[in-house]
Amino acid sequence: MKRKTGHYVVTTTAGETVKAFVPDSLPPKPSLKLDAKISDALDSATLELGRLDVAANIVPNTDWFIYGFVRKEAVVTSQIEGYEPTLSDLLSWEAKSDRQEPGLDLKEVCNYLDALEYARAELANPRGLPISLRLLKQTHKRLMQGVRGAAKQPGHFRTSQNWIGGARPGNAAFVPPPPDKLTDCLDSLEKYIHKGNDLPKLVRIGLVHVQFETIHPFLDGNGRLGRLLIALLLEQWRLLSSPLLYISVYFKRNREEYYDRLASIRKDGDWEGWTLFFLEGVASMGREATVTAEELFKLLERDRLTLLGATNSSVSGLRLLDQLASHPYMTLSRAVQVLGTSKPTATKAMSLLAENGILREMDTEKRPRTFVYQEYIDLLKEDTERI
Ligand SMILES: Nc1ncnc2c1ncn2[C@@H]1O[C@H](COP(=O)(O)OP(=O)(O)OP(=O)(O)O)[C@@H](O)[C@H]1O
Ligand SMILES: [Mg+2]
Asked: What number does the ligand 1 atom closest to the CA of 216 have?
């Protein structure tokens, strides 16, 4: 179905006359057609999110998965634009007790973790900010602190015209609304988030993401913030009880199609095509995350049994194993810290895990000696390698 989703205004930027796109407010008009294909995709996306929630909640400690899955999302969302830290880079950096400031690439990943934590805390606090333009600005500020986009007004909506793709505005893939239209566009997006109840929540999350990208309210970081918004809405609207869906993996795998779908909404009003694409992504990432959660759980159970059967088994050894899910890189000082025991006890626990092939010493020359729970990382790291 062809539909009009906005209008163009002529504007001048960087010395060129261009046509900037001003999107109509959500919801799409005429209303989105939820045909059989979309309905099926919606059903399976909802089902997979439900399964993921169950899988995460049957383990003794959901934080196991939150730790790893949030970091996977953090790494991949920072990679989309071509930055290149890996999951191992992040996890091994986090293991260091004498941490220096991370390099620029890694700092971006850390910023994502910081921004997500900040926004979730606000939303969880009855006196905190709701999902709102203010929350988006505050979250953006954390996302962009001290990284490449730092000069581009972190935490502030843009006051100048920008463009996407292309070296100059004249050959841009897309010119978002002029700055004087931003307030109107953003206010109606905020209203839609709070009042729109025309469509299933999961479908609305997809629409909100696109609308945010199309408005492109910041000079940089719109992609990262728009993806983070998906995570926040999933949780806020109770489709998932913790941020376990690493949706950026799907966008990374289907990058060209993702951009094309965004463009077709502007050009042809194809909200249906986008919705199907988005729901299929949620379903497939939900399914993958559930499988990964189960595999991680099985691995931990297998290793627990190994330890229980070991001749020199110890309580601190078993406790250390529990800690590995959220500290897959381990040093002696870290073990002392997480176990709250003496050095000799922690040393024994580390040796027990190493003797049973659970922990492996990374680089025998390096000090402090660092051990890694490699099998755990291998399960988690799929799709997080450099592109
Ligand atoms: N043709 C398009 N129409 C609308 N939005 C687009 C289009 N092409 C890309 N985008 C959006 O713009 C985002 C990039 O914007 P920006 O550079 O501000 O964000 P970023 O976080 O720095 O980058 P990235 O998303 O690449 O990591 C893309 O992720 C995508 O969501
Ligand atoms: Mg950018």
From this structure: 18
